[in-house]
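ok new one. same drill as before - structure tokens go in, u give me an amino acid for every spot. 182 of them this time. try not to just spam alanines like last time pls lmao
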């Protein structure tokens, strides 16, 4: 399983999409308490559950990690861990996946400087005020100690999405081979 972490606009989501398109690496379907949006499908975009159901799943220990975002709960379940899957995660989620000490999980940090990421956020239509807040938040969230045990750091600033995707995939396969899993 590929775990992608990185600050806002570091390219995580685009790399995950490219991994799916080029290599058939499917995304982990996370569970959320937020309401389904028009065009979304339960079991494809997310597993949509009530807050009560989510809390029961927490009590049962079914999540690798979970977080509260915009007053909704989100989490990835242990049953989603499998080969040729990818999850895009925040630093706390990254630490939770690393803590599993599962040899089938390969972790990546996509690194890009603040100025580049800020420009990317504006280009994709984020409000300037929101982009500034995200950069400030990410400065703290992605301090070196929060990403210290990641298997690979990849520069996503000076390489195209396609190059980063190929690098992630190749390192994933190489790592599984080294661990005797491929």
């Amino acid at each position: 399983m590929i775990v992608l972490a990185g600050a806002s606009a570091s390219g995580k989501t685009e790399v995950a999409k490219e991994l799916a398109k080029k290599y058939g690496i499917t995304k982990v379907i996370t569970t959320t308490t937020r309401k389904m949006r028009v065009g979304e499908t339960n079991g494809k975009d997310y597993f949509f559950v009530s807050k009560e159901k989510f809390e029961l799943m927490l009590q049962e220990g079914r999540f690798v990690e979970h977080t509260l975002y915009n007053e909704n709960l989100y989490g990835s379940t242990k049953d989603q861990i499998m080969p040729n899957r990818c999850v895009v995660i925040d630093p706390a989620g990254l630490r939770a996946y690393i803590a599993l000490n599962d040899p089938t999980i390969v972790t990546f940090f996509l690194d890009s400087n603040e100025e580049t990421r800020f420009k990317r956020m504006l280009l994709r239509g984020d409000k300037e005020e929101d982009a500034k807040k995200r950069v400030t938040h990410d400065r703290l969230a992605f301090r070196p100690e929060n990403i210290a045990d990641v298997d690979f750091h990849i520069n996503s600033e000076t390489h195209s999405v396609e190059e980063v995707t190929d690098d992630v995939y190749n390192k994933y396969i190489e790592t599984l081979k080294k661990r005797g899993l491929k």
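The radius of gyration is 16 Å. and btw The CA atoms of residues 9 and 124 lie 9 Å apart.
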